[in-house]
Input
Amino acid sequence: MSTNPLLEQYSSVLKSVEKPGRYIGGEYNRVIKDKDAVKCRFAFCFPDTYEIGMSNLGVRILYEVLNRDPDVWCERVYAPWMDMKEKMEEYSIPLTAIESGDPLDKFDIVAFTLQYELCYTTVLAMMKLAGFPIWAKDRAEDCPLIIGGGPCAFNCEPVAEFFDLINIGEGEEVLLEICRLYNKMKDDGSYTRSAFLREASHIEGVYVPSLYEVDYNPDGTLKEYKPLYPDTPKTIRKRIVADLDNAPYPEKLIMPYIETVHDRITLEVYRGCIRGCRFCQAGMVYRPIREKSPDVLCKTAKCLYENTGYDEISLISLSISDYSGIRELTDKLLSWTDRAHVSLSLPSLRIDSFSEELMKKVSSVRTGGITFAPEAGTQRLRDVINKNVCEEDLMRAVGIAFRGGKSNVKLYFMNGLPTETDEDVVGISDLASRVVKEYYSMPKSDRPRGVSVTISVACFIPKPFTPFQWERQASLEELSEKQALLRSSITDKKIRYSYHDAKGSIIEAVLARGDRKVGKAIAYAVEQGAMLDAWDEYFDYDRWMDAFEKTGVDPSFYTTRGYGLDEVLPWDIIDCGVTKAYLRRERDRAYEGKTTPSCAEHCNGCGANKLGGKNKWCN
Output
């Protein structure tokens, strides 16, 4: 059995840090291979703590996919907590993989998943702990290849120059193709770092930033991306898995020794979204919609239950109640989960498709609360963002929830949406008050005891590949004023108000909308100790502003300025499937206050059908 040298050699260090179980490995169902027998050693790095990374479904899927290949051994790597990082630096302990305990310089490929923008500093901090140069151009021939991927890859320009290559889109197929190309070139003796990158750029979904020269206009906006070679693609089209029923999915889950964020079975029901919310990046970049069949899902759920013993199954997608087979699936699952005392969780229910039938099917979930996302406080603004729900939908949904025993309702909103007015902001508290009123309008015998309504308000960030990608972000002062206005308008003690730190949203916007010039600010922030910026206790707004100043980056250039409709955007190098013409049409409809129906009603011509995919909506 493989043992972890970190545990053996630095046991005194592990005893002095919080949660040593984050680092020891040895979990049940982990994959151990003969490292001398495999051709490609692959380190899959999650730039956050073990508890967060162990709950990530994408990592679980890709771990399974890569380890099915006998020539590849994929191991896991997580970011250390700050106390462990300090010990590692003090005692020169390198960053190691969980399975073998080997340092990352023993691997052929080191991959980072970019799940959220504020993890960028953690990525670079992990590279430094591994002993790697953070800039791709500074890496020697024998340095492992550094890959990026994940949701933030759709605008990876702020971190592009830190990676040798970047996977755009879904990774199940492309990562294996990268590994097999690496093995082939090593076997036939043709491998050099530069030769491999040239060849890898020909794989659909692979972006090699070093193969492009980026030119800027005198005003700082982008002029063009110039491929350095005739065979370098002008744009990189994302990869998708066309048939999810036949796509690999874990049959076993690694069982952690410590509590993780999601200690349950996670069942991916479908990818994509039939809705067209104009603020939502995921709803655009994950198109086209592809569903798994109820039979496949039920078989997978039962297999995972038998292999783990978890007593909760969470059905996940961008909007679970939009799954066309939701009734059949829940009936099939309940045919055995009730007997096994396994509860079903449906965490992404839409207001307009929430029903009493669904309420009864999830009534076994151990919670007294339920969550909905109206997103805006007035119907006018909900139409602008194409939410396609109305107040009557919400009151019907919360009424069902109250009658079903749910006494706590959480409502998600955003501040700073395009065209938002003070009336829209106050409308959030008015809507919450009407939910409380709906509770008291019910007979006492029909409602649970003690109503509580929590309104959670995020700051709008105009993300790439959305109809609002050109919009300005509200300034820190504007967002703070909106938060203060909403707070002052809440008078009912049964309404609780929580909101996101506007400072964090400003930095997130710069990283989400930035170009390659932002990379030097990220690197500087890391030199000043930045890491784990997604955690409130380690996020330092002043450090970021100092980094921008020291590196000559103006954050307002990427936030409050907004982008011109004819401007070359940093993410124009990527083809996510949805056309810019469609996004522009949707932006125009937003300013006209017009809604667009869902894909289930008719095809709206977004362009994602060109990617293929087994689905019933795209023409």
Observations:
- The chain is about 35% helix and 15% strand.
- Residues 422-440 form the longest helix (19 residues).
- The CA atoms of residues 87 and 93 lie 8 Å apart.
- The two ends are 53 Å apart (CA to CA).
